[in-house]
Design brief:
Two copies of one chain form a homodimer.
Chain A: E1 6-10, H1 16-25, E2 31-35, H2 47-61, E3 68-71, H3 74-87, E4 92-93, H4 96-106, E5 111-116, H5 118-123, H6 125-133, E6 138-143, H7 147-152, H8 161-176, E7 181-184, H9 193-200, E8 205-208, H10 209-223, E9 236-240, H11 247-255, E10 264-265
Parallel strand pairs in A: 1-2, 1-3, 2-9, 3-4, 5-6, 5-7, 7-8, 9-10
Chain lengths: 271, 271
């Protein structure tokens, strides 16, 4: 048994959808979450800027004695995972590979769609991973640059003409090309599940990045003998790099339950 | 005569609307533009983070021998102008006061609306400046947090249901309250002039931040004997903090003419 916490980070608060999944799948583990809210969004930035930010995020988390890190950010995973793994002597799990494995399990037509930020799609990481795991798969990627700002501004509900219009614009080409599986390659997107499902229809299976990576982390902790005592309830601590006002309210949306816990603010550029 | 360049900066490329105004109003001046594209958008960040970013932006610009600085960013002006002026021994012009003076010249009903980012509205800077200049003015402020990401993603044209829906939501309460003048308090917003005018109607005068500050800078240079030779054509150099790909194409939109000049990339966190 290993009672050390797991570090989780994202560009902002979208990664809390992965915390939600960890609470369900690994309720006994202690979590330290960092959201880089002073520099969100990551999705349109260059590979070099993203690697720099990701290294700082990991250095901050490693100021705690961690047993593993979950990168709850599609953009960082897609652009920086292998470098971060090579530079750090603890297990680091990203969202790309677990999500691709799941998508290949559920697709029947071997036509898989992937929606993510511009940086993630440009990196080609999801497509390369899917093709490495199954050379016959056909992959159709689509960047959705406005989904993160829209979700962060609360525009994610069914019946909102703005999000529904953007969803139709982004997704109808994927639907027209006949994908039967759609990877939500950004941890902000689970909040859009209903809106996305309305456009894609009942025959397309949605695969969510945060949830699959939580299952992957569970397998990894088990394999390496790193799990906490299963009879306990884990605790979570939250850190952000910008103002902590409104954190509880916004975090509650991503966590899908009332959070009564404040976040602490840190200066990420010190790391 | 003083041939040293003028420094101009913004969170991203929206400040290029002020460069457009400077080209028209002060065509003989040399300009050095910096857009902090690695950390855009500024509008939702805290006052402390904004001051830190603004100080770095000024330090980078002052690595050139400048005669003046124009802060082509409503958010930085609203939160950090007086501190930057106190810390620097050269003239620094912001967008708030010139815009407020203009609004007070054109309003007849003394009911003035102001739209800007969340940080600008929260700062209260526009409202405080308007009331200092005319204690009888009634000010109605409205944050429009999605306007910057929408403009940056090319969603600013008449007939676009997404921007038109957001414009109606943000602006109809201002219209209902009977403002006769509307300050566009963010340098991204001039691209939305048609969309905003369609909602506000012909009886509301729009006052644009970038243009008024260019006039203010002209007056200041003249008063202090700092103007360049009026018989020459000035040059402009462009610097950004993230990737320079697509710069010419996106800059051309804000500058309203074809730009055939690349931007150079710098690491703003070194400053």
């Amino acid at each position: 048994m290993d009672m050390r916490p797991i570090g989780v980070f994202d560009s902002g608060l979208g990664g809390l959808t992965a915390v939600r999944a960890l609470w369900d799948i690994l309720p006994e583990e202690n979590l330290i979450y960092f959201g880089d809210t002073a520099r969100v969004p990551y999705g349109g930035r260059s590979k070099e800027t993203l690697l720099k930010y990701a290294r700082q995020d990991v250095r901050f988390l490693r100021s705690f004695d961690l047993k593993a890190i979950l990168i709850a950010c599609g953009t960082v995973t897609a652009t920086s995972l292998s470098t971060l793994q090579a530079e750090n002597d603890l297990p680091i799990v990203g969202v790309v590979e677990p999500t691709c494995r799941r998508a290949l399990l559920v697709t029947k037509t071997k036509k898989v769609g992937i929606i993510a930020t511009l940086a993630s799609i440009r990196s080609g990481a999801y497509e390369a991973t899917l093709k490495r795991l199954d050379s016959e798969v056909e992959v159709i990627g689509k960047p959705c640059p406005l989904f993160v700002p829209l979700v962060e501004n609360g525009r994610f509900r069914r019946g909102d003409v703005v999000i529904e219009t953007m969803a139709r614009e982004y997704l109808e080409p994927l639907k027209a090309q006949g994908v039967d599986t759609l990877i939500l390659g950004c941890t902000h997107y689970p909040l859009l599940t209903e809106v996305i499902a309305d456009v894609m229809g009942p025959d397309v299976t949605l695969v969510s990045a945060g949830e699959e990576s939580a299952f992957e982390l569970k397998r990894l902790l088990k394999a390496e003998g790193l799990r906490a005592d299963e009879n306990r309830s884990g605790t979570s601590e939250f850190y952000v790099s910008d103002q902590t006002e409104d954190f509880e309210r916004i975090a509650s949306v991503f966590l899908q339950e009332d959070l009564r816990q404040a976040a602490r603010r840190i200066d990420i550029e010190q790391y």
